[in-house]
Amino acid sequence: MNKEEIIFVTQPSLPPLEDFIESLKDIWESKWITNNGKFHKDFEQKIADYLGVKHISLFSNGTLALMTAIQALELEGEIITTPYSFVATAHAIWWNKLTPVFVDVDPVYGNLDPQKIEEAITDKTSAILPVHVYGNPCDHDQIKAIADKHNLKLIYDGAHAFGVEENQQSVLNYGDLSILSFHATKVFNTIEGGAIISHSLEMKQHIDRLKNFGFVNEVIVQEPGINAKMNELQAAYGILQLKEIDDNISQRKRISEQYRKQLSNILGITYVDEKDNTKHNYSYFPIFIDEEKYGMSRDKLYEKLKENNIFARRYFYPLITEFTPYSDLVKYDLSNAQTMANQVICLPIYSELTEEDINRILEVINA
Ligand code: T4K
Predict the structure, then answer these.
(1) Which CATH number fits domain 244-366: 3.90.1150.10, 3.40.50.300, 3.30.420.40, 3.40.50.720?
(2) Ligand 1 atom nearest to 316, measured from its CA
(3) How much distance in Å is there from the Cα of 184 to the middle of ligand 1?
(4) Is 39 in the pocket of ligand 1 (CB under 6 A)?
(5) pTM of the entire structure?
(6) Which of 2, 50, 178, 216 fits a disulfide with 158 by CB distance 3.0 to 4.6 angstroms?
């Protein structure tokens, strides 16, 4: 056992270098390196087929995808969302000059609690923006019923939900729009990257214009778009990644099962159970530390792991509402989110994590 070797919370899966070089040769020859090239078109079709979604628009990253999704629905006023997420969820609302209204999460999965949404709806509310945290699906039926009742739009931040299905249906088909992130730290990566899933060709074309400055053609700009296009290198890399993704997810499943088995008897440590009828992607492995029962605080364990060169992460601590731009916006009780943020540690999970690595991590937790 080499205590010196660093174990990170994640490591990206990379496609075989020889294969990527072949794609690069093709790109070099064509000199077409961005703006809806051949690899982009091919990747868009292949990823839609893989995910089981009808329309997908590729983006340079997930944050720009989320910002553009809000633009595409022409939202105004307030958007109800969760404080228990990566800060980009709220930033996308802020950059659209709208106000995020933070509502508490359920205490088990950490997803927006449908029971808490209605009290936060005002005459300024235009949408609900839940996050499938750690890839665990939100309670879509209940959230959709509320959105429909109050005539609100529904955008899912599915940054963690690549490949996740409920009852054999991609969760990315939920809502008016869903977004994905293909950042290096995600289950599926294109180095940086993202996407919007939409439900009509008309909406896809609208989104595709928005990510390309609003151009309809060489002489017509219909709306003030942005530049959020995915380039040909990312798309070529993404096509190769699709070949590896099933294997990658099954490796993660193996790791997740090992953690579950080994952690189940440790007093004061809990983890999230898998949901019924759900195909998971094992994107994160969060554990929650009850200081009293475990006999050590979450932060102490986090530091202890670090001392052993194990760089776990506290996703999502601090809560978004603890960051300066949002700290004045707290209106509702967020105690479930606060408890989770105070107790969580995401353990390392990625396809190349070895049995030996897992044992090293568990040894520190058990000590
Ligand atoms: N919505 C949600 C719910 C999200 O979680 C995110 C992003 C977004 C929206 C926005 O999507 P993007 O615009 O990012 O596409 C990371 C990611 O940067 C971010 O994508 C992600 N969520 C968030 C949860 O985590 P950091 O600051 O923790 O990443 P970093 O650089 O510390 O990396 C973590 C570990 O991963 C490193 O310690 C080592 C390893 N790593 C990282 C990189 C970048 C590698 O081994 N190789 C690498 O290239 O934010």
Answers:
(1) 3.90.1150.10
(2) 24
(3) 7
(4) no
(5) 0.98
(6) 178
